[in-house]
């Protein structure tokens, strides 16, 4: 390989890295554009967490710290600041630069604040239904005795 080819390869690598930075900026812009929706998440997360007897995890992080981990498995990975909608890293090894290009589609889906709100509301309904069912079972048991 001659120096011209090596320079061309390096230029292409640099171009890919710069496009990745542009993509990450677009993801952050997308998240920040939903600020008003993200600000609804802490109250909904607190309701879910209350039904779950205040377990540790992303629901508690949402209502105590105003942070929404993008992935429920990695609480200290990428997070949304629920006050501003800003995308941020949650730990030393989770900077935006560590995002793999193959993750962009998944992250974009997880940054849909309306979808997150819909999921939280759905979970609240399920938990309310379960609570009502167990309450009804208890009442039926009392009637049988």
Can you give a write-up of this model?
- The chain has a three-stranded antiparallel sheet with strand order 1-2-3.
- The protein has one domain (3-144).
- It is 63% helix and 7% strand.
- It has helices at 3-32, 35-38, 41-51, 58-65, 104-110, 113-144; strands at 67-69, 78-81, 87-89.
- It has 145 residues and is mainly alpha-helical.
Protein topology:
Layout: H1 3-32, H2 35-38, H3 41-51, H4 58-65, E1 67-69, E2 78-81, E3 87-89, H5 104-110, H6 113-144
Antiparallel strand pairs: 1-2, 2-3
User: What Rg, in angstroms, do the CA atoms define?
Assistant: 22 Å
Largest sheet: spatial strand order: 1-2-3
The helix content is: 55-70%
Count of separate DSSP helical elements: 6
Q: How does the helix and strand content classify structurally?
A: mainly alpha
The dominant shape is elongated
Strand composition percent: 5-15%
In round numbers, the mean pLDDT is 83
Number of strands: 3
Number of domains: 1
State the major sheet: 3 strands, antiparallel
Could you list the spans in which at least 5 consecutive residues all have pLDDT below 50?
140-145
The termini sit apart by 88 Å
Give helix and strand order, one letter per element, not per position: HHHHEEEHH
């Amino acid at each position: 390989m001659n120096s011209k080819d090596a320079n061309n390869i390096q230029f292409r690598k640099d171009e890919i890295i710069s496009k990745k930075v542009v993509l990450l900026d677009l993801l952050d812009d997308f998240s920040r554009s939903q600020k008003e929706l993200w600000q609804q998440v802490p109250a909904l997360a607190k309701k879910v967490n209350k039904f779950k007897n205040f377990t540790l995890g992303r629901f508690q992080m949402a209502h105590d710290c105003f942070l929404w981990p993008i992935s429920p498995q990695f609480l200290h990975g990428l997070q949304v600041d629920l006050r501003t909608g800003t995308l941020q890293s949650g730990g030393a090894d989770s900077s935006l630069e560590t995002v793999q290009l193959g993750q962009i589609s998944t992250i974009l889906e997880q940054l849909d604040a309306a979808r997150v709100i819909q999921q939280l509301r759905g979970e609240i309904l399920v938990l309310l239904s379960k609570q009502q069912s167990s309450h009804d079972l208890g009442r039926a048991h009392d009637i049988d005795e």
